[in-house]
Amino acid sequence: MLFKMKHFFLASVLLISACGNKNDDTQTPPQAVRTESAVASAQPLLALSGTIRAEIETPIAFQINGRIAKRSIQAGQSVKKGQILFELDPRDLNQILQASAAEVAAAGSALNTAKADTQRNRQLLREKYISQQGFDRILLQEKEAQTRYDAATSRQKQALNATEYALLTAPNDGIVTELTGEAGQVVTAGQPIGTLAHAGPLEVEVFLPEGFIAPTTGQAQFSNQTTSVTLREVAGSADTISRTMRARYQLDALPQPWPLGAVAKVSLNSPLTSSTSNTTVSVQPPKTLTTVPIGALDERGQGPQVWLIFEGKAQPLAVKIISLNSETAVIEANLPVGTKVISLGTHLLEPGMLVREIAP
Questions:
Q1: 91-165 CATH, one of 1.10.3720.10, 1.10.287.470, 3.30.200.20, 3.40.1180.10
Q2: What predicted TM-score, i.e. pTM, was given to this entire model?
């Protein structure tokens, strides 16, 4: 009886051991995933909205203080060079001009008297009736009278110029894009009361993300017209509020002028890089942009990424998103065209997880 119990106990141990070995040999099956190949993107490096502007824009301002008596233009109006835009109240200016004219007349009379005294005392000096020292004093008085006359004449010219500055004229042909001055408003010298967009070449103004090197070329589209653009200038520093860099691109070979202030779609190409020297400018190779399915993107609080299959295991790759739509995403990454990316169920993956590719 004791022998039978020992035999039963040994058989049970062997059976349990065999079952345990069988479970150890069992592995979790690979996760089935669907993949798609990354394709080359024809999308530009950056797509922005830009504003059409004139190459030269001049603030409209008076050179003197005064009260606006008349405004002769409206916003959006085309003007010719020399055309009167604003007029100041001339009453005070005319009074200053009259006062300066009287000052010139008084200084002129004093100068004539001093010259006559000098001429008379010169004759007395030759006849030894006055000393050389006395004559020098009279000669000095003539020079002082001449200086006062010259100063009065200069003030009269300034007063005359001021009356001319009371008429604010267009410095060039163009379009008045903004107006803030109104009749009755008191303005100071140099205070902008409008903006004149000079006739001539047009540009598109865009604002680039901070740290983004301005591309040299691209395209602009407005309505059904498209033209190439070329970088002309970039702001020296970022805007303190928006932290963007202002850049201006020349519009090349426009079939017809685009309206000022219109919004155009700007597509920029390769970036520009320059050294600290003003003479060294070179162009970098275009960055690699690829298009992947929208489902291939995965975001887990550490930036966007896609998943690749390496030796049968899922591995993440960090990417930079350029643009998105409802079906695809354009990304910038070290991802050769044709590389297969996992396009479905990326939220279930973990680095190193076994995966099995299935046909699409």
A1: 1.10.287.470
A2: 0.59
